[in-house]
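Re: that chain you flagged

S.,

Sorry for the slow reply, it's been a week of failed gels. I finally had a moment to sit down with the sequence you sent. For the record, here it is as I used it:
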Amino acid sequence: MKNMTISKQLGYGFAAIIALIVATAVISLFIVTSIGNGLTQIATNTVPSLVLLADVRDEARAASEDVSKFYYASAADRVALADKMAKDAADLDANIKSYEALLSDSTDAELFNGGVQEITNWRNSRARLLDMIRQAATPEAVASARAFEEQTLLPSMDRLVDFFQKDFAYNVTLSDASMAASMNFERIGMIAMIVLMILGPLVGILIAFIISRRISANLTALAHRLGQSAHNNAAGAMQVGNASSELANRASEQAATVEETSAALEEMSSMTRSTAANAARASVLASDTKSVATHGAVTMDDMMSAMAAIENSSAEVAKIVKRIDEIAFQTNILALNAAVEAARAGEAGAGFAVVADEVRSLAQRSAAAAKETADKIDAAIANSRQGTVNCDKVGEALKLILSKVIETDTLVSEIALAADDQSKGIEQINTAIEQMDQVTQANATSSQQCASAAEELRTQTLELNSVVSSLGKLVGITGSGAEAMTVSQPETSETVPVSRGKSKGTFI
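Prediction finished late last night. Pasting the structure tokens below so you have them in one place:
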């Protein structure tokens, strides 16, 4: 409770008093409720239970009296008695049903159920006895019926009445217990009310005394602490003012430096963007060169395929020319044989000799032409082979050029990507510098505001001294004690006004 606020101390004090009042009300309500519950239990359960038990007992006895009348009644009277017995049995069952809803506990239920069971047994015995009386035609039969009544029916009725008498006595005991409990609650309530009426005012006075003593002690200690704090605040305000002035000057210098750095970064960013643009254009050109080289390589492959086809065709033509040469050779031999045969024939073969001579001449010309054609075809085949070799070399060169162009395109793409990343990095640095400049300007402004606040704090400290003096008078501190709480303020140096530099750089 020593470190609690005044409002909390007063709150706890009033809470304790209210708690006593609430406790008194709760105890009173509990006692009244308990007494009411006891009386309600007696009125709604115990009294109706006693009445019903008495009714059940009396109705059972009345049924026993009707059995005695059955001996001497006429046939018509017996019918009337049977109807009356049935009606009384229905009324008795209704009372039994009503009492079952009022059973208090297991003992009450055990006694009552025993009586009900005995009623059932007695009714069974009564039905047998009535049949014996109806069938009794001789004095001996009547005597037998009376003997059955005395030995069976009357003892059953005695047991029945005994069950209900015990249950009646048990309910009377429950009623007495409820009344005793209500009386006990009343005595306890009276004692508790008297104790609380005496204890409440005493506790209230004690709490008021403790709270007043503690509040007075806390206010006195607080007054001393406020006085010391006022002195410390004045010294702190002077230090904060000096530090704020120095900080403002340094912030202005930092702002100028950040402005120069921003301008340099702006130029670097411009150069980086230009480099990135050139790298992007070079990447496009390298990509176009790669496409052209790829197309040339495909065209060279097609040309190599065509040269191979020409070489194959020349070989086929050479074979055909060779066959023509062979045919001419065979024709020449045939012409010689024909000339020999014509010479042997003499004048008869003169015409055949002329024809043979022409055929031989034609075969010689065909052989000469075939030889000349074969020489030219051989030369063409040699040229085709040389062209194929040259095409292979050109194809290999184009493939090498294509691979180099692909490497160049990849390298230029990486350069362009790196230049773009570098440009973005410079932009981020430029943004950071801009934010630093804004923060620096804000720091300079805050430093000036801090210096002004320090001066205002010194003024508030003087006002605080006046409040401490008034508080000391309020708590009863006079003389040297009051002077000790209001200490003199330290000398404060003049704060140096600072000018905040304004950045003129353009940021990207």
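What I noticed first: The longest helix spans residues 139-345.

Talk soon,
D.
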